[in-house]
Amino acid sequence: MKPIRHYAFISTILLLLTLVSGCGNDQVEQEPQKELLVAAASDLTLAFTEVGALFEEETGVPITFSFGSTGQLADQIENGAPFDVFAAANIDFIDRLKEAELLFPDTQTTYAFGRIGVATLPNSTTSVETLDDLLNPEIKKIAIANPDHAPYGLAAKEALETAGIWDQVEEKLVYGRNISDTLSYIETGNAEAGIIALSLYQEGEVDFELIDADLHEPLEQSIAVINRTNEEELARMFIEFITGPIGKPIMESYGFIVPEETE
């Protein structure tokens, strides 16, 4: 009987060790994986998707982008949205959040200047090479991003006003929620023409004519780290990556004007 009790004792010990080991593994598995949440203006969709993939490769940390209108994203951040980084299409919105003490001020960086242009479908029967061409009666709908909260929409409005044709085309205007939404109006044929970001232009998808940058205020695009982030180090690394030797050429390839030096 003694050997039986001995074996039973050993079996109990082994079972307890297995349970303890299993609990330890569960604790390791339950450790949250690092992730970076980036709120970014819609004009950055193509460029940031490419840069983000390279950042993930280098750091092993996945990035989740939320692309949208800069003004609406700023509102979400003010209302507590859990973003780590905010990349705006206009520096004014970064300044607004800085004044509200929602950013790390030293992380604010001008990372690019954007450009706008007139876009039409390649098979369009109406040629649009200048803003004045938008007065053509065959163009019944012109898409721009909502100027109330989208910097690229505001730039489009300023350009139309400076060109002296805002009042003449205002009734033709349809407003996208953001600049990507504006492009969709053109691609789906719901607008004969539109004013979009150069950074979203893809050859063969639409025809595109640049608008003189002097017709609107500069689209100075700024980025910063949200100060309630739990991933401050990674967020700072992402900004350095965007403005560094890997990110800069990619941004330039999408038509952004990249500052020679960032603050």
Automatic annotation (TrEMBL):
One term of GO molecular function: metal ion binding
InterPro entries linked: AvModA-like_subst-bd, ModA, ModA/WtpA
Signal peptide: 1-26
GO biological process assignments: molybdate ion transport
PROSITE patterns: PROKAR_LIPOPROTEIN (PS51257)
Top-level taxonomic group: Bacteria
Keywords: Metal-binding, Molybdenum, Signal
One Pfam family per UniProt: SBP_bac_11
UniProt keyword Membrane, yes or no: no
Annotated molybdate binding sites: T70, I179
PANTHER family assigned: MOLYBDATE-BINDING PERIPLASMIC PROTEIN, TUNGSTATE_MOLYBDATE_CHROMATE-BINDING PROTEIN MODA
Family, per entry: Belongs to the bacterial solute-binding protein ModA family.
Name the record gives this protein: Molybdenum ABC transporter substrate-binding protein
